[in-house]
Class I SAM-dependent methyltransferase (Microbacterium rhizomatis), 241 residues
Amino acid sequence: MNDPADFDGVAALYAVARPTYPKAAVDWLVDADASVVVDVGAGTGLFTRLLDDGARTVIAVEPSARMLEQLRLAVPGVRAVTGSGERMPLPDASADAVVFAQAWHWVDLPAASIEAARVLRPGGRLGLVWNLRDERVAWVRELGAAMRADGDHFRGQPQDPEVGPPFSAPERSLVEWVRVCSPDEIVSDVRSRSYFELLSATEQRAVEGDVRAVLDRHPETAGRTSIELPYVTASFRYVRP
């Protein structure tokens, strides 16, 4: 997975700035009768808390110590362990589902595919999910450019993620929804990104200025304290043979 230090400096902000996920996507990815679910690259627990229904066992796996601190505060009843997509500290064939929310693009694909298959029971499910800003909308497309965004956008039917053996082609689901947020919350989302942390102070101010300029000039956003930011949540599920 990613270098854990990539997100250490933004862990607290990440916990409050990033969007949640629609319930329809969670229910589609993970069967109601899945008794053990592993959330890998769990970050601050945004997806973990949606899995924690009180009936199933949820295990969160995350490489960043500071992210794990935030996760344990947010979801204290969940077992949270240090690990990665390539190395999960879990027994063979111990999970009904393994999910990666906004995390599969960080992994070593062959190694993570093999590791997910190891942890899953035969017939278990690998689930991958991304929240994508809907850049079919003009102002959202300009927002992405102003953010210097790192690819988390939707412009049409997304390609299937690359997943190695033993998994084959996935089933797919797209859920359209709207995040209601303030201009400051949109800027906080930008500031929570690992690439933003690596910019100089001058570059960071330029990005923030460009983002606010987009919000200030479009009729859908100008002068508003509450903005409707459209998303598409793309989900993919694979069965372990």
